[in-house]
Design a protein that fits this description.
The complex is a heterodimer of chains A (287) and B (345). Chain A is mainly alpha-helical. Chain A has a two-stranded antiparallel sheet with strand order 1-2. Helices cover 73% and strands 3% of the residues of chain A. Chain A is globular and about 60 Å long. Chain B has 345 residues and is mostly helical. A two-stranded antiparallel sheet of chain B has the order 1-2. Chain B has 2 domains: 276 residues, ABC transporter involved in vitamin B12 uptake, BtuC; 41 residues. Chain B contains 14 helices and 2 strands. At the A-B interface, helix 4, helix 9 and helix 11 of A face helix 5, helix 11 and helix 13 of B.
Chain lengths: 287, 345
């Protein structure tokens, strides 16, 4: 029983990270209908920028995260301006291939500048605490707490502010949003900024537990795709719930099934879902 | 007719060059490079058939390539099968897996299909990587025999292997040529252009997509089996997404949905990679942006660009007499109007 609850806590940590990454992916998909394969590279860049801000510039962990969120957010905006905007009328095949090109470039770039080694990120929150008889590091509590806070903030932003409402309006109908005077270009840029920042935040929070290396985004992005298909492409609550479902099933699967094959669980879930429902769970009807 | 003759001449020159290559270039390294790029070409033709002509981006093809390669390795080394039997079995098994994957994957469309196949590819990679006892895991798989002799033909020397791979490549290109210009090929293109319209016209899109997918998997597995017998060492890396992206780059640079594209793109990129060898680990610093810029500004690739240019020139020549006649008529009518004005005045 104790092992079970320990694994649930693990799942909660992993799920928080997955949810943050999937949120960024689903926001972009909702607005532009692009499966952004380069999102994993943004995640990786987020990890590196935070690490470098801490080790090279000597910033404290918290400030380094904010700086990294801003930097990677801008990188996302740059991506939208330089690549996805010129391709807005191209066949869908082109977006995907362009995104793959960006992914390859950013990975090679990280390897070129920072090397291929696995690096550890120091954290001021490495202490172990005991809560109700369960031991866990403060870093894990931090991951869970900040993920929940960010999700609530994002939800309030989208539902209660005018700018947030314009993002939702554009996701519902691009031409319609344009007609009522929403600057869809600005909204698209904002969405990419949010998406990049969320990826950077997720990477910065997860890196002290995992490691920082050029390929760190591969599995995460694939799993984020699984999550947004699970939760419905473009659906924000779906991304959050899907992230936690995947986090729990992985940590329980690693304990009770096989640690070696735990990464396959996500893909097995996806293959089963798409086999039964080819348009994903919660697909919009009549489209 | 003249165009047809010209094309024949070109093909003859190319074939003669390919046949004479090992005689002209005595440097064994270049023969090795050429053989490898022929193997990539076969795989890229597989991808081209499905992505270029049928319009579906499958990201699982590196996985099928690896299944073909590993099956050959395992059957010859571990099970001790005769080479050519194992070769046929490797292609057959991969194609069979392709049928099952296709049956399920093709129920999905567009983005879902790309993501689904990406995940299938990753599952294949993970299985090869983790199934230590069968595939050797990260240590790799060694000791695969070179192609066995067929009667008096021996394939032990690199030059003999070059000709063997060339034979397979020519067979693949010929199949593609016949296919693309047949009703079936046109059906695939109809599906690419609009699946709904094709369905409305009474085309069974599912059946055609599946046939195209399975044939493309077959080509890729053929390339994989040839790769295994030529390199004779396998690592799980060949199933990795980066191999998939290499295929995509070859296809896009050459021209997606064209017959010459895979040959042009693969040759050009392997040659360039050769020149940029000092960059080996970082070559994606160049190829990543090239891929992206290409898809934004020149999505038809080299072969596609040439075809478009030719079509435009043809169109201009066809329109030319027409344009002259129209211009002449306009001149006459305006002249007539001028005369009428003069009379009225």
């Amino acid at each position: 029983m104790e092992l079970f609850i320990q694994q649930l806590l693990n799942g909660l940590t992993v799920g928080s990270v997955y949810s943050l990454v999937a949120l960024g992916l689903t926001l972009v998909y909702g607005i532009l209908h692009i499966p952004n394969f380069a999102h994993g590279a943004l995640y990786m860049m987020g990890g590196y920028v935070t690490l470098m801000a801490m080790t090279k510039l000597g910033m404290p962990y918290g400030i380094a995260i904010v700086a990294s969120m801003a930097a990677v957010g801008l990188l996302g905006v740059l991506m939208e301006r330089l690549v996805f905007y010129p391709l807005r009328n191209a066949p869908p095949l082109h977006d995907k291939i362009a995104a793959i090109g960006i992914l390859l470039f950013l990975e090679a770039f990280a390897q070129f500048v920072w090397g291929a080694d696995y690096q550890t990120m120091p954290t001021p929150y490495g202490d172990v605490v005991t809560v109700f008889g369960f031991t866990l590091t403060i870093q894990r509590i931090l991951i869970i707490a900040s993920a929940v806070i960010i999700m609530i903030l994002l939800y309030l932003f989208l539902k209660k502010t005018f700018i947030g409402a314009s993002i939702i309006a554009m996701a519902q109908n691009r031409e319609g949003a344009n007609l009522v005077g929403i600057n869809t270009n600005k909204v698209a840029m904002l969405t990419f900024f949010l998406s990049g920042s969320l990826a950077a935040l997720a990477a910065s929070l997860a890196s002290p537990i995992n490691l920082v290396f050029p390929g760190m985004g591969h599995l995460v992005i694939l799993k984020a795709f699984v999550i947004i298909i699970l939760g419905g492409m473009g659906s924000i609550p779906g991304a959050i719930v899907g992230g936690y479902i995947l986090g729990f099933s992985e940590s329980l699967g690693a304990t009770y099934v096989s640690n070696d094959y735990k990464d396959i669980i996500a893909f097995a879930i996806l293959v089963i879902i798409l086999t039964v429902k080819p348009n994903g769970l919660f697909a919009k009807e009549g489209h | 007719m003249a165009v047809f003759e010209k094309r024949r001449l070109w093909l003859a020159v190319l074939a003669a060059l390919a046949l004479a290559f090992p005689l002209l270039v005595t440097n064994g390294y270049y023969v090795h490079m050429m053989t490898i790029s022929f193997i990539w070409m076969i795989a890229v033709y597989g991808l081209n058939l499905f992505a270029g002509y049928t319009g579906y981006l499958s990201l699982a093809h590196a996985g099928f390539f690896a299944i073909g390669a590993y099956t050959l390795g395992i059957l010859t080394v571990k099970a001790g099968w005769p080479f050519w039997l194992a070769f046929a079995a490797a292609c057959l098994l991969t194609t069979l897996i392709g049928v099952f994957v296709g049956l399920v994957a093709l129920r999905t469309k567009e983005h879902f299909f790309a993501i689904y196949t990406l995940c299938v590819g990753y599952i294949i990679y993970l299985i090869i990587d983790k199934w230590d006892s069968l595939t050797g895991g990260v240590r790799g798989f060694i000791g695969i025999p070179a192609p066995a002799d067929i009667g008096p033909l021996s394939f032990q020397t690199p030059v003999a292997q070059y000709y063997l791979v060339l034979c397979f490549l020519v067979a693949v290109i010929f199949t593609m040529y016949r296919l693309v210009y047949s009703l079936t090929g046109r059906t695939y293109i109809a599906i690419r252009n609009s699946e709904e319209l094709a369905l409305t016209l009474g085309i069974s899109t599912m059946k055609n997509k599946l046939a195209s997918f399975v044939l493309s998997v077959f080509f890729t597995s053929l390339a994989g089996a040839l790769y295994a017998s030529f390199i004779r060492f396998l690592g799980p890396d060949i199933a990795y997404v980066s191999v998939m992206f290499d295929f995509l780059t070859y296809l896009l640079v050459g021209g997606i949905g064209t017959l010459a594209g895979p040959v042009v793109g693969t040759l050009l990129i392997t040659f360039l990679s050769q020149q940029l060898q000092f960059l080996q680990d970082y070559r994606m610093l160049i190829f990543g942006p090239v891929l992206t810029l290409l898809i934004i500004f020149y999505p038809h690739g080299i072969a596609g660009g040439v075809i478009r240019l030719k079509a435009k020139r043809e169109e201009a020549r066809r329109l030319d007499p027409e344009a002259n006649r129209v211009a002449a008529e306009l001149a006459v009518s305006s002249q007539g109007r001028g005369e009428r004005h003069a009379e009225e005045g």
